[in-house]
Design goal:
single chain; 369 residues; alpha/beta; TIM Barrel; 11-stranded mixed sheet; 12 helices; 11 strands; 34% helix; 14% strand; globular
Length: 369
């Protein structure tokens, strides 16, 4: 299997590498929304409001590949949805050719999937995928049923959900045994923050090579869910670090804590994360080295779950000029900072709006402890 990303903690999605190499942010990553259909309706889904039952025509693949050819520093491709493997015709005639292009060009690839469908679908994708990325926020099938179908328009029986839950686990285990890199993401939210160590153990038992941990922010289906305080998030992370499997890579991202914070507790957490072996902090790629392309409309977004309007369209616009224009916008400049000492590229836009609306991060620097 293609698993070029290994436990050496290489993370080409992190914009820090681009910034260090080019001394400025460059467009090195493209994420494609390749479907708006899904067999689940998770209550926390960041793109849940855009999910549909019937899809329209996609932008011709030739146009997609032409625009990718124009991105000279491209390093990574991500496939997201919906559930990308939902429709086999799309998978065989659109997604796999796109992934073949990526591998022929030497790009790293990731698919965001729920892994609940037939194993054969993922087996066909495996030769072209470097990272199978799944969401995992459950302790058992009951959690999966309650969380994974909270926004479903029709009733899903527990028996049906339980079957999908065990199929997801079985698929993850089989992919891992066969050499694929499976990375499971857990969100810190009102359901999980007291149970992250137990969730972590389930992820390790599945054979996942990496456990990603991200706080949940207000977006789409999650817009009306309870929001944790910074203290609750911080405590949950410490609790997880206390009990984690030290042999499993743990990646934290979209954190609302910074080395330039005036709160000592924030700085202490960042320093603990930086010092702990096999733990990394990913700087947010959205808008810094990555753009999202909707393959139905051609619209280009900073991220697939942001309320920021489209910044252009690939039908008549190249991606690199769109990225440059976005980089110069006031909204991006507000969080466009870099601290070499802390290896930090600044906050995510959602983080800044939720917790630090009146903070000028460009005027701050890491504290000398």
């Amino acid at each position: 299997m293609n698993s070029q990303i290994s436990i050496d903690l290489l993370d080409p999605w992190d914009p820090l590498h681009t910034l260090q190499k080019y001394r400025q942010h460059r467009l090195t990553s493209i994420e494609f929304t390749i479907t708006q259909r899904c067999n689940m309706r998770c209550e926390h889904c960041a793109v849940g409001e855009s999910l549909v039952h019937q899809e329209g025509e996609r932008i011709p693949l030739e146009k997609i590949l032409y625009r990718l050819d124009e991105v000279k520093a491209l390093q990574t491709i991500s496939i997201t949805g919906g559930e990308p493997s939902f429709d086999e015709n799309t998978m065989n005639h659109y997604m796999i050719p796109l992934l073949k292009y990526a591998k022929a060009r030497g790009l790293q690839t990731q698919i965001n999937t729920n892994l609940t469908l037939a194993y054969e679908r993922y087996e066909r994708l495996a030769p072209f995928i470097d990272i199978f990325h799944i969401s995992y926020n459950y302790l058992n099938a009951e959690d999966f049923h309650q969380i994974g179908f909270a926004k479903q328009e029709h009733t899903v029986t527990f028996q049906a959900a339980e079957k999908l839950y065990h199929q997801m686990i079985d698929n993850a285990e089989r992919l891992a045994r066969n050499g694929s890199f499976v990375s499971a993401e857990s969100m810190i939210n009102y359901r999980t923050y007291d149970h992250l160590p137990q969730i972590h153990r389930e992820i390790v038992n599945m054979g996942c090579r990496r456990h990603e941990v991200h706080p949940m922010y207000s977006s789409s289906f999650a817009a009306n869910l309870p929001v944790l305080s910074l203290t609750q998030i911080r405590t949950a992370i410490h609790h997880l670090l206390d009990q984690r499997d030290p042999s499993t890579w743990m990646l934290f991202g979209t954190l609302p804590f910074f080395a330039c914070s005036e709160e000592r507790a924030d700085r202490e957490l960042i320093h603990r994360l930086q010092r702990t072996p096999l733990v990394t902090i990913r700087n947010d790629p959205d808008g810094r080295n990555r753009l999202n392309v909707n393959t139905f409309t051609g619209d280009v977004h900073v991220t697939d779950f942001s309320n920021v309007p489209a910044i252009g369209n690939i039908v008549d616009q190249a991606l690199e000029p769109l990225f440059t224009a976005w980089s110069e916008q006031e909204m991006q400049q507000r969080v466009n900072c870099y601290c070499p000492q802390a290896k930090c590229c600044g906050p995510n836009l959602l983080v800044a709006d939720m917790y630090y609306r009146h903070i000028d991060f460009t005027a701050r620097k890491a504290w000398d402890e």
